């Protein structure tokens, strides 16, 4: 089965790296934490960080999380919205640095790239393009679907109405996709008593191949086989893994590239639905 997806060396490494190392929430605390850290200024030395691709990339991986909420500043320290911020990053003429945490939210500032490493320019552009694509999906209605998992359970647009959906897009030979299985399973365990939440994985592989593969590996999500056309043509997925959080109204709330990135957004949404029930 043919799959159309982006193969980018730096981004492949980024996807694999997401299986390890700390991932932080929008408030600067580790994923899964409710802690809101105090305001803080961060010293950044752009000249040193931009000396080579690896130094810049290592900094960006641990400090600049574009999938979350943040305050954006242009190169002149003028506030700009997330869309405008990502569009400027997509030019490859600027990079982002974390200069402050304010009211629990990171503040990112753009810094011009003039005569710098072309690898930095290219990778920064690629990362921003993926985040912009994901950002544009937020608020869109999840395309109509009728899924049947490996156990014969069916899911469709009507039957899942009023429930939160966590969708994982993957395939067997995606190392980063498989490496995060333990985190996926931990998330299912954490919310096992919440009946308004469904965990569904969309795989491009055939049923028999998936059954054989999963006979020696545990994935607690419902597994839907042969989803290549839906992922590629309906969702326009070009990078794996991709995770989608879908609201009770059927609209996409968040699109991220790792389950760790997803955790704080799911936690926030589950808290919101719990608070609504109290009223």
TrEMBL record:
Keywords: Signal
Record-linked InterPro entries: AhpC/TSA, Thioredoxin-like_sf, Thioredoxin_domain, Thioredoxin_ResA/DsbE_sf
Protein origin, superkingdom: Bacteria
Keyword Disulfide bond: no
SUPFAM superfamilies to which the protein is assigned, alphabetical: Thioredoxin-like
GO MF, one example: antioxidant activity
Signal peptide residues on this chain, from the entry's feature table: 1-19
Transmembrane residue ranges: none
A Pfam family it matches: AhpC-TSA
Domain Thioredoxin: 136-279
CDD domains linked: TlpA_like_family
PROSITE patterns: THIOREDOXIN_2 (PS51352)
Database matches in PANTHER family: PROTEIN DIPZ, THIOL:DISULFIDE INTERCHANGE PROTEIN DSBE
Official protein name in the record: AhpC/TSA family protein
Organism placement in taxonomy: Bacteria, Pseudomonadati, Bacteroidota, Chitinophagia, Chitinophagales
